[in-house]
Write a structure and sequence with these properties.
With about 300 residues, this protein is α/β, with parallel strands linked by helices. The chain has 10 helices and 12 strands. The relative contact order is 0.16.
């Protein structure tokens, strides 16, 4: 059993463009924007739909229904795109949307060779983990920005959990407890876990090495430090410099491997990392190509 888990872990890492720098040159991914609802409010986050001009998390040209998402995967796989991963990363939090599990289950049954991946804030992870595993998810990204509740209180304005909305210290306590408990349970279940951390200068920069240390000890596979995009309540903060990010990566590398090729992808990203190809346009082109072939055959 342990040998099988190790083999599955290596297969995912070798084929997942977000987990391996080598893989991101050879494979692409599809982010399916089927999850608009979110259960927390980060002070740096603005979600946008019908947005084609920004390249960042939380934005999408549109939100797909489950049948539309499955059809898009079919079309792009049939075209022979080098897709190894089907991910759901928003525009909200996937675990706060039941459609996430409907889509993952349908894709897993039809394309079992593809890696199913989810990106989450971790609030609902402990209660939703069994459903993720049952849907065939093999890799998971959890965004963890704090260890100390006082720091989390500065970053998150509210969280909604089990029918209750929390603010202040209560929100921080609930979120941190679920994130770290969920990470441990996900690793125990055999998922390959990446931890994302948004570097927010003056807020959590001193805490990030501790995040890496704790995540590494709990079995996370890789750590991804990404720069703050100053917006929303954090519009007045500055974006961290490349030197600051590199310094923290060097410090955190002693605790776990560091991802260095992240491009902070949109919720509807498609293709190789950094390409941000328009999935809507790609699907239209695929359909036009099929119609043309039928006309001339």
């Amino acid at each position: 059993m342990k040998a099988t888990k190790r083999r599955n872990r290596l297969d995912v890492i070798r084929s997942h463009p977000c987990f391996s720098r080598e893989a991101h040159h050879r494979f692409g991914r599809i982010h399916l924007p089927v999850a608009p609802a979110c259960n927390i409010q980060c002070r740096y986050c603005i979600r946008k739909y019908d947005c084609a001009n920004e390249s960042r998390p939380g934005v999408s040209s549109r939100v797909y229904t489950a049948p539309e998402a499955l059809e898009r995967v079919r079309l792009l796989v049939e075209r022979g795109e080098r897709i190894s991963v089907i991910g759901i990363a928003g525009p909200g939090d996937p675990l706060a949307n039941d459609v996430t599990f409907e889509v993952l289950g349908a894709i897993g049954r039809e394309f079992p060779e593809l890696i199913l991946c989810v990106s989450t804030n971790g609030l609902s992870l402990p209660e939703r983990l069994d459903a993720l595993v049952g849907a065939g998810v093999r890799s998971l990204t959890i965004t963890i920005n704090a260890v100390v509740p006082e720091t989390a209180e500065e970053i998150y304005s509210r969280v909604s959990c089990n029918g209750m909305t929390y603010t202040g210290r209560a929100a921080a306590d609930v979120l941190l407890s679920n994130q770290w408990r969920g990470l441990c349970k996900a690793v125990e279940a055999g998922l390959i876990v990446k931890v994302n951390t948004v570097l927010i200068p003056g807020v959590n920069d001193q805490e990030i090495p501790y995040i890496a240390w704790l995540a590494g000890r709990r079995g996370a596979a890789i750590h991804n430090i990404i720069p703050l995009i100053p917006q929303a309540e954090f519009e007045g903060l500055r974006r961290p410099t490349r030197a600051e990010i590199n310094r923290l990566r060097d410090e955190c590398r002693q605790y776990m491997p560091q991802m260095t090729h992240c491009r902070q992808c949109r919720a509807d990203a498609f293709g190789g990392i950094g390409e941000d190809r328009d999935m809507e346009l790609e699907v239209i082109n695929a359909m036009i190509g099929e119609e043309y072939c039928e006309m001339v055959s």
